[in-house]
Design brief:
The chain has 424 residues and is α/β, with parallel strands linked by helices. The chain contains 19 helices and 8 strands. Strand 5 and strand 6 form a beta hairpin. It has 3 domains: 159 residues, no CATH class; 74 residues; 172 residues, no CATH class. It has a 5-stranded mixed β-sheet with strand order 7-1-6-5-8. Strands 2-4-3 form a 3-stranded antiparallel β-sheet. Bound molecules: iron/sulfur cluster.
């Protein structure tokens, strides 16, 4: 079943370096996820597993049809999870036995592509990695040259997270590549601090709201160009920094937002543990309640930790969060959001949440208490935080939607609170 075709492709270096760690992986991608099977692959697998009674038994144990009323061509069946909440097709070594027995072409597209995400930008295919895979998180966050672009012709499965039609894209879609390219070039600018780069991104997002949004009917090209030229001027940049690059307060509201976001994820032990250790709240009611801390106290303790750790590892931590930001803007296309400002809000809230989880990670707290430098421990904690967060949120559409609603309700074009998020 080879339905691939050769296409012009651009991808970052980190994805070119990726190889699945299989049984050496600290987690694996078949844990706890619902894996959809399209009709074509369902029929193919049913045929392959009909050779004898044992094969048929395996198929019936591992695959379930979606109930008739909800069945579609793309979501025709699912793979059952075993008693360990893992895909039933995993063998004792944690390897996929469909792949072992019949090759990767027989896997449903989701399994075959993961952790790659494909996009079509109206001209060529772009491919990025999902940070929910720990190996992708390592390669993306830790290497200085992770985002060096790689251009080539490659075999592509025609399955896209986003697709911009080549001939009748809306104005909002049409400028997708230009806008993201400007954002990425800005995020990489070594002469500005990360906080300054994010302030310019925010200023751009806010400044574009009037003429660049989902329902734009007039060509926004000239207005976008003017805004970009203005923001590229060093004098203008300095004006903006003077205006915004100072603490804006609002930390109590920010801590409230973070606690609410963590509470939405509290079914995951890592989120419940942070709520317990930082806020003193036992959200799952299984432990003794420690002293509940005020948002102001939590913020002060967090800031002390940030100060200690960044005084030793500033460059490395800036690299993690710069690369996270780049991957966000490359692989979460703003065309999904009504305008750039709304999209920026989600990004800013997630940056703040990830920073909080990183600086409150138990190994980072230990590092803060020692004077010696241990970059390996720092890297390990970063990978764990980013991949666990991504694994929890990016593959759970219900949770994702709840978080987006909460972020919009609480940030709601509140510029000082957005600034507090990116300067956190
Ligand atoms: S999570 Fe990534 S490295 Fe681990 S098994 Fe899945 S694809 Fe391979």
């Amino acid at each position: 079943m080879d339905n691939s075709e050769k296409s012009a492709l651009i991808t970052p270096a980190y994805l070119e370096r990726f190889h699945c760690l299989a049984d050496q992986c600290e987690d694996h991608c078949c844990h706890g996820w619902r894996i959809n099977v399209d009709k074509q692959h369902y029929q193919r697998l049913k045929y392959l597993y009909s050779a004898d009674q044992n094969a048929e038994k395996t198929f019936n144990r591992c695959v379930a049809l979606v109930e008739q009323a909800k069945r579609t061509v793309d979501c025709y069946a699912t793979f059952n999870l075993n008693a360990h909440n893992e895909c039933s097709f995993l063998d004792a070594q944690g390897l996929c036995f469909i792949q072992k027995q019949h090759g990767a072409d027989c896997l449903p597209d989701g399994c075959r592509l993961y952790p790659r995400k494909q996009f079509y930008n109206g001209g060529r295919v772009e491919m990025y990695g999902a940070l929910s895979c720990p190996e992708i998180a390592r390669l993306c966050l830790l290497a200085e040259d992770a985002f060096d672009p790689v251009e080539k012709n490659a075999a592509i499965s025609p399955q896209y997270v986003e697709y911009i039609p080549p001939n009748d894209a809306s104005y909002y879609q049409k400028y997708n590549v230009e806008v993201r390219s400007w954002m990425i070039a800005l995020l990489e600018k070594p002469t500005l601090s990360l906080s300054e780069r994010l302030i310019l991104c925010l200023y751009f997002a806010q400044g574009s709201v009037g003429f660049f949004h989902k329902t734009t009917v007039e060509d926004p090209g000239q207005s976008l160009q003017n805004l970009i030229e203005t923001l590229n001027q060093p004098d203008k940049q300095q004006d903006i920094f003077n205006q915004f690059n100072a603490p804006m307060g609002r930390h109590v509201e920010l801590m409230d937002l973070l606690l609410k976001l963590l509470s939405l994820m509290a079914a995951k032990p890592f989120a419940a543990d942070i709520i317990h250790s930082c806020f003193g709240v036992d959200i799952r009611g299984r432990r003794e309640i420690t002293t509940m801390r005020s948002p102001q106290t939590v913020y002060q303790l967090y800031q002390e930790n940030v100060k200690t750790i960044t005084s030793r590892y500033d460059k490395r931590i800036t690299l993690f969060f710069t690369h996270y930001a780049m991957n966000f803007w490359l692989s979460n296309w703003f065309c999904r959001s009504d305008n750039l400002f709304i999209h920026f809000s989600r990004f800013a809230a997630e940056m703040a949440l990830l920073k909080f989880m990183f600086f409150q990670h138990k190994d980072i707290i230990v590092l803060a208490g020692h004077n010696d430098i241990d970059e390996n421990k720092l890297d390990k904690a970063a990978v764990e935080v980013f991949y666990r967060y991504s694994r929890t949120v990016e593959h759970d559409s219900v949770l994702r939607a709840k978080m987006d609603v909460l972020i919009q309700e609480m940030l709601n074009e509140d510029l000082p609170l957005l600034l507090a998020c990116i300067q956190f």
